[in-house]
């Protein structure tokens, strides 16, 4: 009776807290990450320990609240962290037809403190920071750590794979690499 | 004496066992109230302190006189959908995601805002480039926040419109002296 109600309320509160602060699992759809995830049918496991932008690195896929539509959640890849220089446009695409292509293509921006630059994998159809600018880190809900394609025929954990960060470097660049990069420019 | 000591010690040992069992039992019972308590604080309402002089004299009117800070009740349910002009809201700072900031909503989406730099300096003075001479429109899903204490406030005049997704709550009541004052939306001496 009353005790059952109280216990179930406590369990609900605990579950909600775990969902918001530890792990959550949700379906994802949309073509903006087509290179990595199909348009529908993917379920993503997000680590909420990485919310508010904690311990993120460039190349992580993150879920975040869309700045213009606070009721929607987006999934994009972190391209720039505070202080990084990122390209505003898309290589090969020009905003102003007829203008100097080199200038347009090479517009860069330094990501302000407390913000991140998020870009989707499918550059042509992705509405991301190239459209709405750097996103405050506080809007980031978590980092995607695993993906799966549950289906009725293959079970809930079909094609489960841990997400690897393709841009991660484990050691800082060596002196030769830095010198070559500077001289080659 | 010896018998009394012996009997008291023999009475002690069982009580110790009973005590730890009871203590553990009650600890567990009260510890299970922790998740609902945390959930309530994060999603319904929270009692917190206001730090800083950016909302002087509305909050911390004695900022220069005393160390005490104002206590307030922050209401968190359904705030993001019902943001109104003149409300005092709490939100995560766009420049530091770990910090929660308290400011007043001056403009909601669609409003035209003239940033303070233009208001104060007119055209920005000779030789200064002014970015928004005719003001800017607050984009969809964003609010323009300003602190009541214009000089000492780092607000939208510094980091621009704030996305409603950053809003964590609305300050509903503040404790002034011994009275609980309800905080109502009001526009503080402005255009």
Automatic annotation (TrEMBL), chain A:
It comes from Apiosordaria backusii. GO terms for cellular component: mitochondrial inner membrane peptidase complex. One of its GO terms (biological process) is protein processing involved in protein targeting to mitochondrion. Belongs to the peptidase S26 family. IMP1 subfamily. This is Mitochondrial inner membrane protease subunit. GO terms for molecular function: serine-type endopeptidase activity. Its EC number is 3.4.21.-. Residues 1-28 form the signal peptide. Its main location: mitochondrion. Coiled coil: none annotated. NCBIfam families: sigpep_I_bact. SUPFAM superfamilies: LexA/Signal peptidase. InterPro entries: LexA/Signal_pep-like_sf, Mito_IMP1_subunit, Pept_S26A_signal_pept_1, Peptidase_S26. Pfam families: Peptidase_S26 (PF10502). It is found in: Mitochondrion inner membrane. The active site is at residues 32, 76. Keywords: Hydrolase, Membrane, Mitochondrion, Mitochondrion inner membrane, Protease, Signal. It is an enzyme of class 3 (hydrolase). Residues 5-87, 110-146 form the Peptidase S26 domain.
UniProtKB/TrEMBL annotation, chain B:
It is a single-pass membrane protein. The keyword Secreted does not apply. GO terms for biological process: protein processing involved in protein targeting to mitochondrion; signal peptide processing. It holds the Pfam family Peptidase_S26. It comes from the Eukaryota. Its EC number is 3.4.21.-. Keywords: Hydrolase, Membrane, Mitochondrion, Mitochondrion inner membrane, Protease, Transmembrane, Transmembrane helix. Residues 41-123, 136-174 form the Peptidase S26 domain. It is found in: Mitochondrion inner membrane. CDD domains: S26_SPase_I (cd06530). GO terms for molecular function: serine-type endopeptidase activity. The keyword Ligase does not apply. Its main location: mitochondrion. GO terms for cellular component: mitochondrial inner membrane peptidase complex. PANTHER family: MITOCHONDRIAL INNER MEMBRANE PROTEASE SUBUNIT 2 (PTHR46041:SF2). Belongs to the peptidase S26 family. IMP2 subfamily. This is Mitochondrial inner membrane protease subunit. It comes from Apiosordaria backusii.
């Amino acid at each position: 009776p009353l005790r059952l109600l109280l216990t179930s309320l406590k369990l609900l509160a605990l579950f909600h807290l775990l969902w918001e602060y530890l792990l959550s699992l949700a379906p994802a759809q949309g073509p903006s990450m087509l290179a990595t995830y199909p348009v529908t049918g993917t379920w993503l496991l997000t680590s909420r320990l990485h919310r508010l932008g904690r311990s993120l690195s460039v190349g992580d896929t993150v879920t975040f609240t869309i700045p213009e539509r606070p009721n929607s959640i987006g999934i994009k890849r972190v391209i720039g962290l505070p202080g990084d220089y990122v390209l505003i446009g898309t290589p090969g695409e020009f905003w102003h037809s007829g203008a100097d292509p080199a200038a347009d293509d090479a517009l860069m921006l330094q990501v302000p403190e407390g913000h991140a630059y998020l870009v989707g994998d499918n550059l042509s159809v992705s509405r991301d920071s190239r459209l709405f600018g750097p996103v405050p880190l506080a809007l980031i809900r978590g980092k995607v750590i695993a993906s799966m394609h549950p289906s009725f025929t293959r079970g809930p954990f079909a094609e489960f794979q841990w997400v690897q960060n393709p841009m991660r470097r484990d050691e800082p660049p060596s002196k030769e690499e830095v010198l070559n990069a500077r001289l080659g420019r | 004496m010896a018998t009394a000591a012996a009997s008291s010690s023999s009475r002690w040992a069982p009580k110790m066992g009973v005590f730890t069992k009871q203590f553990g039992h009650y600890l567990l019972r009260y510890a299970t109230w922790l998740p609902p308590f945390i959930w309530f604080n994060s999603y319904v309402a929270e009692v917190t302190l206001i730090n800083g002089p950016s909302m002087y004299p509305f909050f911390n009117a004695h900022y220069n006189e005393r160390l005490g800070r104002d206590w307030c009740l922050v209401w968190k349910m359904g705030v993001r959908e019902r943001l109104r002009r003149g409300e005092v809201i709490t939100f995560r700072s766009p420049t530091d995601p770990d910090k929660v900031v308290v400011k007043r909503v001056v403009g909601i989406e669609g409003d035209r805002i003239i940033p303070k730099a233009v208001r104060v300096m007119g055209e920005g003075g000779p030789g200064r480039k002014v970015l928004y001479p005719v003001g800017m429109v607050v984009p969809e899903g964003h609010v323009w926040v300003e602190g009541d204490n214009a000089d000492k406030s780092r607000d939208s005049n510094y980091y621009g419109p704030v996305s409603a997704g950053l809003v964590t709550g609305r300050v509903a009541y503040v404790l002034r002296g011994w009275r609980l004052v309800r905080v109502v939306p009001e526009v503080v001496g402005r255009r």
